[in-house]
Specification:
The complex is a heterodimer of chains A (84) and B (223). Chain A is of the alpha+beta class. Chain A is built from 2 helices and 3 strands. Chain A has helices at 18-26, 53-68, and strands at residues 2-11, 41-49, 74-80. The chains are: A alpha+beta (84), B alpha/beta (223).
Amino acid sequence: MKYAIIVDVTLRQGISDPEGATIERALPALGFTGVSDVRAGKSFRLNVEADNEAGALEKATALAQRLLSNPVIEDSRARLSAEG
Amino acid sequence: MSRIGVVVFPGSNCEYDAASAVTQLGATAEFVWHGQDNVDGFDGIILPGGFAHGDYLRPGALARFSPVMNAVANFANAGGAVLGICNGFQVLTEAGLLPGALQKNRGLTFLCHPTTLIVESTRSVLTLMATKGQELSIPINHFSGSYTCDDKTYEELVANDQIVLRYKENPNGSRDDIAGVSNLAGNVVGLMPHPERAMSLLLGSADGQVLLSSFVSKTLSVR
């Protein structure tokens, strides 16, 4: 089976996020108030061959930790894509 | 004569400067293509600046999987002198050969200007011939040069004298003004500033000489 997976990569809590901070500072000028804790990150979409959902997520989680993220500063999370 | 391998990844762009600098100091330099799976016969290895593999994903993230990096890791673990400059520093942290990581600069600007560095440790292969507290004028040229690590790693860096160089004035948000670190043994060093671009007073500064002279002399002594 082929599963569509999304991997989200975000900076770990406590690691400064200059992009997120810059976006947050820009929002009030555009009229968007009441928005806080903006964190910038990356999203990857992949098709993963596996016997079942759990196997696909396991494979995606492993490759996310090995390549897609730097675990020293980033967290990664694999999830099934709702859109397929 | 010391024989230094300068690793060339697709996208490296400081390899000629690095080779020229160590040649000026009496070593011989040879380029090592990233697809090569050994670094046999070299006395020291330099990972130069640039944008290895386009810096795609993260700086150094793909370069660490280049075939040559297994050989560099074995060379480093056997006590060989390894120096990562700028992008090379990023590659060494991604490869786990140096602690911590390099993040986008505070302020999100590409920085290209001279900086004043302070020598913090003379235990590393890059600073053996420098003196503690010595100030050096060395340029930086980077977008992702803000050194970061967790508290535990930071405490280990301090306790083990692994902080090699600090900025006198922090340009990029680096933790505790860190410009360069070494591994525990001191034979692997990474720094964001470019000592190979500070080799001649005519071009602004010759302060890179004391750093690269240390590196070249060390490659001779471990042979």
